[in-house]
Amino acid sequence: MFRDDEKFLFNDWIFPNTLEDFRDKEVLECGCGGGQHTRFIAPYAKSVTAVDLNTADIARERNVDLSNVKFLESDIASMDLGKTFDVVFSVGVIHHTDDPDRTFENLKKHVKRGGKLIIWVYSEEGNSLVKNILEPIRKSLLCRLNKNALAWLAKGLTLLMYIPVYSLYLLPVKFLPYYEYFGNFRRLSFERNCLNVFDKLNAPQVKFIRREKVCAWFNAREFKDPCVTSYKGVSWRATGIKNG
């Protein structure tokens, strides 16, 4: 329905890593969606194993030209691929799983000693409006809509959002909720903004994750050079090198 073709956004999410960190590496992508991020890293990686529970077939069809990529249908929380990888990454997926702690542990298990783990997740900090107001509305009113209806709703809501984003949010009033986030909104295409809204409407569940939990995941006992940073005040990006 919508595509994610904004490479700058992917680069922001994996920061301080860059696409060069995937060069000549065996990579595991956990939650590949339609394979858009797979396409970003494939030219750099030695090989990519891209896993998704629901959309692996779609991703495979969209990326048939990528000879170094293998798409698998599996649950990233419980998969056992029988090998470890140089780089394991998961962008925007862990917070949609039943048990983020269990999911993270399984991702960590698939990282080689000395390999790198990269994640991006929604933060509890900065998301009280979504968590306490919008999420209950979504769960009670939108759960029965099919994807086509949700796609049209996402387009309508995205159009409405352009009004405050290009008026009130242009003023230097940084105390407004999602002020930093809407700075990105103005950089993205209408199609990409629709995808963001659609993903939020369509998600079966969302677990907002506190910084202290992410820091505990990337603890110094298990990871070298752990790095946890806020992104636009509504999410965490985190990375570390698994200790040998």
Give an account of the 3D structure.
The structure is a single chain. With 244 residues, this protein is an alpha/beta fold. It has two domains: 7-124 and 208-242, Rossmann fold (3-Layer(aba) Sandwich); 128-202, no CATH class. Helix content is 38%, strand content 21%. The protein has nine helices and seven strands; from the N terminus they run αβαβαββαβαααααββ. The protein has helices at residues 7-14, 36-41, 56-62, 100-109, 128-142, 147-165, 179-185, 190-202, 211-217; strands at residues 26-30, 47-52, 69-73, 85-91, 111-122, 223-231, 235-242. It has a seven-stranded mixed sheet, with helices on both faces. The longest helix is centred in the middle third of the chain and has 19 residues, at 147-165. The radius of gyration is 18 Å and the shape is globular. It starts with 6 loop residues before the first helix and ends with a strand.
